[in-house]
Amino acid sequence: MKCILLGSGTSTGVPRIGEDWGECDPNEPKNRRTRVSILLESDEGRRLLVDTSTDLRQQLLANGIDAIDAVFWTHDHADHCHGIDDLRVLRYGRGGPIPGYASAVTADRLRRRFDYVFAGQHGYPTIVSLEALDRLRLCAGFAVEWCQMPHGPAVSTGFRFESGGKSVAYATDFSEIRAEMVDVFADVDLLVTDCLRRDPHPTHAHLGMALELAERCRARRTVLTHLDKSMDYATISGEVPTGVAVGYDGMEIVL
């Protein structure tokens, strides 16, 4: 299985508008970060997209992605779903809508905000057939597990995907480690985790919390994502322990 980090940045990206790089070296290409999302690809070539970030079109073009088998959403915050219209092109040539999945709460909010995507409009076909996760356990050949994670006053869905005997956990936008998260992510081959900054934050994991999750889950490999402008790639790479890597846009991890 292969995991591609389509985007690795926080909600404002790096740099922020105005060429605000913060502590990030502007001469290091891995510090240029679009909004977070990942794509998983099985050995059979089946692809799952997690989140439709604000920068989805740019990400799909940069990584040569022209087809997916399903899309999952972690939650409905703008940086995770407002690129949803770019799924229209991925709908072309399909016999039906793209299968989509989210928690019941997230699905309801997406339907109200983007009704035309899920119901068609003015003669245009439905782009995504959205369903609540409920008892979903298999999608496009991937085994799927999930849990709800605290995200400040909101919640975000954490996912575990398995294919070909390998496993990837995706835990972005969480602010507390719960026992259910540790259970779902236990002994995962790759953990891609929220890591906004070094200092604690009310709605996101900081570096210490991200490393704690990796340790408690006994993750074999860990990649940090959702990084803000204080997280310089080279600097943080020199601080993290063996088995932990700083994520960057376009990063590919083959398991």
Automatic annotation (TrEMBL):
It comes from the Bacteria. Keywords: Hydrolase. The keyword Hydrolase applies. Gene3D superfamilies: Ribonuclease Z/Hydroxyacylglutathione hydrolase-like. One of its GO terms (molecular function) is hydrolase activity. PANTHER family: HYDROLASE C777.06C-RELATED (PTHR42663:SF6), HYDROLASE C777.06C-RELATED-RELATED (PTHR42663). This is MBL fold metallo-hydrolase.
